Amino acid sequence: MDIKNFSIVGSIRKGWQLSMVIPKEKVAQIRQSVDIVDLISESVLLRKTGKSFIGLCPFHAEKTPSFTVSPDKQIYYCFGCGEGGDAITFVMKHEGVSFTDAVRMLARKCGIDIEPKAGGNRPGTDLREAVLEVNRLAAEYYAAVLRREESASAVRQYIENRGISWKTVEAFQLGYAPDRWDAFVNQLRRRNIDAGIAEKAGLIVRRDQKPGYYDRFRNRLMFPIRDTQRQVIALGGRVLDDSKPKYLNSPESLVYQKSRHLYGIDKARNACRKTGEVYVTEGYLDLIAMHMHGFENAVATLGTAMTVEHIRLLKGMAQRIVLMFDSDEAGLKAALRCIELFKSEKRLDDIRILVLPEGHDPDSFLRKFGADAMMEHMKASLGVFSFLIESAVRQHGLGSSGKIRVIESLIEPIAAIEAFDSLSRFAAIRELAERTGISEAAIQERIRQTNAQRGPKQPVLSTNVPSEINRLERSLVMMLLHFPKTIPMFQNSPWWGNLEDPMLNHLVLRVCECHGKDTAQKPIAEVVAALIEEADTPEEKRLITELSMSTDTWNDAACRRLLAQYSLRRRHGVHAVWKQKIRFAEQTQDTEALQKLMEEAQSAFRATGGMDP
């Protein structure tokens, strides 16, 4: 049956390889249209402090916020890991896409039509768009099959038996993949769509023994998987009988990595921000049941264990994360693996563990007991250490030897807590003492003995301390960037184009070029955007962003003091170098060489504006 009434775009017809280049003026228009605070707030919880906003960095593990967003300059910078840039840079890093893909995503968000010019060499960009479009097509096709085909009557009955309303079916765009080897392949052929694109999306598979393709999904209830931009990035399918595998997802592709994505996040994000809490389940039907019963702040992993990328995505949406697990052995092991990940991300205080009654998952529990019972059961969710205690007690018991094994099994977690929160450590020891009946002092002594056996920790010495000259040169860049009227003064100094740090020297020239001959204050966001766009390397881009975040106040007096201090330091450096050369020549008793060095030293020192050495 040929399903009608779903659209196809030209980008996925045969001949899709034509590449596109986005005009620079469009990129500039998009930069000006995006509010970086609104953009980043979609994935990071920000709070206002003065003129800036701060939050926990989405790019590295931290407990104290060091991620800063400047609305005036339209940039972000993390003082913890050094990541920084503008709105386009953030989308590239956060979504793992190319520059062009990031621009296109922002263009869609701003409602800006991009009029591309043919040419360039970006076939991967167009392929990514084509993969997204063929995924959208597949989701619409399977949804149409579920609604209209007679062969889908069994799956419609299955949906009804599971208590899933038709409103929910439409909200999640559930579908049905027909029990045929070529149903979707034929749809592609009828519409002259390149099968190679659908293969790259993982929707069809190339045959081994003869030419052609066959459908990956057959006789399955289908679940479109969307990203935070609500684009269909993959599909998942569930069998209706006992055949294996029970669940089948699209393979990883240009647009889908299971370690970075969560099912239902497109629908849950707003509810998570509103409630400050997110529930994490392990399956499509669990997630749908949660949403049907009013728990709209729920997401599900996609056939994989929780990853660091998942944690960073979730912590940008909610302060508290509740992990929901079955009470069987597999569920408990999954919970312990998650705790290890959260420990590595220093987020142990932010999670709760909810173990459901034996024999139940969220779907079965809600169908049997309802939303009120689930709400009541959620009150019994445990903090990380409470969960670890109960797991250890379950394994070892509370007999005389069991208590010792319980305590010994929890020394490592206590040490992990101590590494970043001493108050939580004391609370954990108190809870363990109450549960086992062993005094806090005895537990403390046991921990001390264990730590003593391991030996002292080696101190970590920082080698990333900038020199005094480097610090002053960074200040010079900040001065010229934020107070451009000092540019002529610096251009007349002997240090113009002659900074010791090559990257900072290049950046000084770029700052002056961006400000132009007219040193009247340009909008700082405009200058920073130009600097970031023309940066040659990611390191230079990060440096620009870091220096742009300066909140120092500049005036004529402050600028003159900085220039005087820098000149003095540089002259001392020049003096020291020539003095060492002259001392060496004196030791060799080479009178001619010594005279020549003295003359060169005088010339070099005069060039710096100083007196003869």
UniProtKB/TrEMBL annotation:
What is this enzyme's EC? 2.7.7.101
Per the record, the GO terms for biological process are:
DNA replication, synthesis of primer
Q: Which Pfam families match?
A: DNAG_N, Toprim_2, Zn_ribbon_DnaG
Q: Which UniProt keywords apply?
A: DNA replication, DNA-binding, DNA-directed RNA polymerase, Magnesium, Metal-binding, Nucleotidyltransferase, Primosome, Transcription, Transferase, Zinc, Zinc-finger
Catalytic activity annotation: ssDNA + n NTP = ssDNA/pppN(pN)n-1 hybrid + (n-1) diphosphate
Q: Fetch the InterPro entries from UniProt.
A: DNA_primase_core_N_sf, DNA_primase_DnaG, DNA_primase_Znf_CHC2, DnaG_bac, DNAG_N, DnaG_primase, TOPRIM_DnaG_bac, TOPRIM_dom
The record's GO molecular-function terms, alphabetically, read:
DNA binding; DNA-directed RNA polymerase activity; zinc ion binding
Give all residue intervals belonging to the Toprim domain.
Answer: 276-357
What is its quaternary makeup?
Answer: Monomer. Interacts with DnaB.
> Per the record, what about its domains?
Contains an N-terminal zinc-binding domain, a central core domain that contains the primase activity, and a C-terminal DnaB-binding domain.
Q: Which family does it belong to?
A: Belongs to the DnaG primase family.
Q: What does this protein do?
A: RNA polymerase that catalyzes the synthesis of short RNA molecules used as primers for DNA polymerase during DNA replication.
State the protein's name. DNA primase
Question: Which species is the source of this protein?
Answer: Desulfatirhabdium butyrativorans
